[in-house]
Task: structure prediction
Amino acid sequence: MLRCDAAVDMLLDARDGTLSLQGRQALERHLSQCPSCTAFQRSYERSIALTAQTLAVKLPPQAKARIQALLHQRLDREIA
Result:
């Protein structure tokens, strides 16, 4: 039986399609029997989805300009 730490390590490979067939089958068996890892997988997938949504949000031009100005000020202080 696959251990939980190994199952968690395999999730990224499973998601991006690089996990072998044998690995996918072992992971699926483990997830079917382990509620904790299944919950972790759900939260992992949800985190990825939320991150993608966040990255898709467009900043208003004023907010973008203000953030850029603040970053430039901070950079100028660090360089000086």
User: Anything to note?
Assistant: Residues 4-79 form one domain. The helical segments are 4-16, 21-33, 35-56, 61-79. The chain has four helices and no strands. The chain has one domain: 4-79.
